[in-house]
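Support request, please re-run this one:
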Amino acid sequence: MKPDLSAVKLCVFDAYGTLFDVHSAVGPHVQTLGAQAQSISMLWRQKQLEYTWLRSLMGRYVDFQQVTAQALSYALQAHAVSDATLEQRLLHSYNQLASYPEVAATLKQLREAGIATAILSNGSPAMLKAAVTYAQIGDLIDQVISVDDLAIYKPDPRVYQLALDSFGVAKQQVLFYSSNAWDVAGAVNFGFHVAWINRFSQPPEPLSHAPTLILDNLQQVIPALGV
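Re-run finished. Output below.
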C-alpha cells in the first residue's frame, strides 16, 4: 500500500552518506595510499560514527570537525601510515566531497513543488557550509541545521526536534531522508516519515519500526510525494 505523504511540507536530509559521498574524500589520494585506500576510508567512517555515539553517551562533546580528524588519525595509525601532510590533505578533501548524481535535480524538483528543504546533520557549521558550497546546492536548501548548538549527536531525539523548531511544523509534515540505517532508526523512533535511501542494499537494523519508504536513491522519492 502506498504511504500517504500528502501532509509533507518539509523534506529534511541527512548530509554525510545521503547527499555527500563520504568515501570520495580518499579519491584524490588513492595513488598515495595504494591498496589500503578503501580500507582506510571504511575505518575512517566507522570510527567517525563510533566517536559521535561514544562522546554523546559520555557527555564529552567535541564538534564533528574534531571527531573527523581523530577518526582519520586512528585509521591511518591502524594502517601504519605516518604522513602529516597527507593527513591534512585528506581532512581538506572532506570539505570537498562529491554529491551523489541525483541530489541537485531532486532538490530542484522539491523546490519547484513548493516543499521546503533542510539539511539536519552531525556536521559542524563550517564543514556543512563547505560541503554545500562545493556541491553548489546552497540555493536549493532553505536551512542547514547542525547539532553543534545542542552539543549532542544523532540519533538523540533532541536533534530531530531541531527540524520542527526551525520550521514550526509537525512531525507528520516532515519526510526525513537518510542513507544511514542507524539514523533512519532514530528518525523513525522520533516519529518522522522516513525514506531510507539504501544505496548499497544493506539489511535493516532491528532498532525500530520499518521506515516509510526504502529506496535506492533520492530521485525515487519524487513519485512517492506526487510532485
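The chain has nine helices and six strands. The mean pLDDT is 96.
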